[in-house]
Design goal:
137 residues, five-stranded parallel sheet, elongated, alpha/beta, single chain
Length: 137
Amino acid sequence: MYLRVLFMLLALVVQTAHADIILILSDDKPSVTGVAKAIAAAYGEKIESYNMGGGLGKESEIVSAIQNSNTRQVVAVGLLAAQMARQRLPSKQVVFCQVLNFEEFDLVTPSMKGVSGIPSLSSQFAAWKLLDPGLRR
């Protein structure tokens, strides 16, 4: 379900199924690389990918490459990538994911949207209720 929502958001941003996308990964954690693999499988070879390696050491190099690219659509996977995109890539359209409590970090802007890393409380309670119909608040 999570990936379905991400792909719907990407479709809104990208406009065509095979448009170019820049992918920024915060690090090499499986939760980040798994999303990258799913996006690559869905969108094919037209993806430029940058990995921040869990730190800011490559930030200037990555930002420079992205700013010099004609590609406007960016997917930021993980908090570090989303924060960098928010601060340094205002001219790009960004979708972020794999960020818990994104509201805390003021990531949503007119050109930057995201997919919540956790379901809403009502969705969580509904799932628990399916597992245990006798469950009460």
